[in-house]
Amino acid sequence: MEGARVKMLDPPKDTLKSHELTVHGWDPLRTDAILVHGYMGGDGKVPMAVLRDAYRKNGRYNVFVLDWGALAKAPCYTAAVQNLRPVARCLAQLFGSLIHVRGRSDQSICVGHSLGAHVCGLTSNFLGYPLHRILALDPARPLIHSMPGMGKLDAGDAHSVVVLHTNAGFYGESGRIGDVDFCINGGRSQPFCSNSSNEALCSHLRSVCYLAESLDPEKARTAVPCARRCPTGARPGKRPGQPLAMGALTPMG
């Protein structure tokens, strides 16, 4: 499926029929991957466009890209946070339809960057049951705790919640919030971004690139998950523990 676009300004259908999906190349033998961008993002913008292309190249996924860019425009970050719930409510309709068509829920995953990670988490609240898997890419920190009635992403939102932390404590959450949390390069800043004009933002976006790399078997990495939260001091050395595949291939459970 060639990266179907779901635009939040379009009224979602109550139900989808399998023939409506197959005409666009949907394959019931593939896993449905719904990608959700963050603040100031869009379906064709970097870095989510890189991730979309990586999922398509992998060949094992029907790729959907949720475009809620009209509700997440600069400079209105506060408004974008307030829009998380209505966006998640609409996304729950898509998940519900896909699960209804399949007759099972274990072939649909939600992949969210920044605020998009919290959209994935809130979606399960509107469905009334956990999603199969959420891949959360540096879930956004600013204002998430302070907004009244805002339920941030947590491990109960899916049967498997995998989190990649790349800018913990600034743009991204620093505490453990998933079943498996990886604090990449210590979780706070990324070496690739040291010469960037905005090292924090570059590090925040880098989480998307790490997941994209994990979809290529030749570039996939292993890492030891964090037990509690990303470290606040100097970047740690080798962490004790059992390494796991990091990203798309992180095992369930």
Query: Mind telling me the CATH class?
Result: Alpha Beta
The ordered H/E elements are: EHEHEHHEHEEEHEE
Largest sheet: 7 strands, parallel
Q: N-to-C terminal Cα separation, in Å?
A: 28 Å
Helix fraction by DSSP (H/I, runs of at least 4): 25-40%
If strands are numbered along the chain, what order do they take across the biggest sheet?
Answer: 1-3-2-4-5-6-7
Overall form: globular
CATH topology (level 3) name: Rossmann fold
Low-confidence stretches: none
Provide a count of the helices.
Answer: 6
Mean pLDDT across the residues is 91
Radius of gyration: 17 Å
Q: What share of the residues does DSSP label as strand, in percent?
A: 15-25%
Describe the structure.
This protein has 253 residues and is an alpha/beta fold. The chain has one domain: 3-Layer(aba) Sandwich (Rossmann fold). 28% of the residues lie in helices and 18% in strands. It has helices spanning 18-22, 48-58, 77-82, 84-102, 115-127, 199-214; strands at residues 4-7, 31-36, 61-67, 108-113, 131-137, 158-165, 180-183, 222-223, 244-245. It has a seven-stranded parallel β-sheet with strand order 1-3-2-4-5-6-7, with helices on both faces. It has a two-stranded antiparallel ribbon with strand order 8-9. α2 (48-58) packs parallel to α6 (199-214) and α4 packs across α5. The chain is globular. The mean pLDDT is 91. Its main location: secreted. Keywords: Secreted. Residues 232-253 are annotated as: Disordered. Belongs to the AB hydrolase superfamily. Lipase family. It is found in: Secreted.
